[in-house]
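Q: I have 328 residues here and want to know how they pack in 3D. Can you give me a structure?
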Amino acid sequence: MKLAPKISLFKKTLLAMSFAGISSIASAKNISIDELVVFGDSVSDNGTLAQLTQGQAPETFTNGRIWSDYLAEELGAAQLNLAVAGAQVVGHDSPQLEGAAAAGAFKPFGIIGLGLRGQVSSYLASNPGDQSGTLHTVFIGGNDILAFIEQRSEFESLKEVANHVVGEITGSVNRLVAGGAKNILVFQLPDVGKSPLFDLPEFEGQDKTASRLVQLVNINLAGKLFTHQRRAGVDYNLFTTNGTRVFNGLTASGEFAETENTWLVLDENQNPTGNVNGNPDDFLFWDNLHPTTRGHKNIAEAVSAKLKRSAHCIGNDDCTTARELSMQ
């Protein structure tokens, strides 16, 4: 499968703060990871959208590398990144790109569809069989939430949106397991209602709605994943991360001098002006939704440390015992 860089739509993607407090829902086995497979949106896209749009989109939506780049390096694993900026759980924020995908325009790149459902289909079509040495990561749903907030969604209630997002993520995990996946990491969403995006006048009063929707998705997602893993007739390792907890931890840690303002200077349409605000390492946010590369690195470090300390021994050759970790 020929895949490259990935990108996202500037105003429409989720914060990549969804790592921390990894929780295992599987009976553990020692595992060795040699490949990281990434599904998601602009927070995880390291060049795909740029490739599909022939360079009209940036390689990443940050000032450097993203979390999956750092994590793959830390684990000593190859990375296959299928995330597409602007992706929803089904389809894409851009009707034009979604139409092109439906017409088969991206099949030469090995891409069947742009949303999570399409990304997983693209992967399974080219990677059948046992994948015990692969860690699959799923982090998506932010664009579905923003579409609802901006009244671009087909759904009319918070419950409908949450059920849609949770159902598609759970379904994708089920398909991956049926296709041979043995190690899956699913991200619960960070609280986008606390991002700088919701300080803008056009989003006034919508922060609580966004936060409530994130909460509904996260609670229901954890429950559905746990239920499926326990009932599945297949042995696999399932991890979740609490993005809201991680994001709150980074905000309160004091590591970033600026946790409310963005490093990029944005115009009234929230597009980059070409100017920046000082040292990027002082800022948690690159733009109104995406973290700086330092934020991405912190996320990857937290995930790597948690995985190495877990009984599943990912990236830890000295680990020989196993135990079941409780849901968090």
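Q: Anything worth noting?
A: The domain at 23-309 is CATH 3.40.50.1110 (Rossmann fold). The chain has a mean pLDDT of 85.
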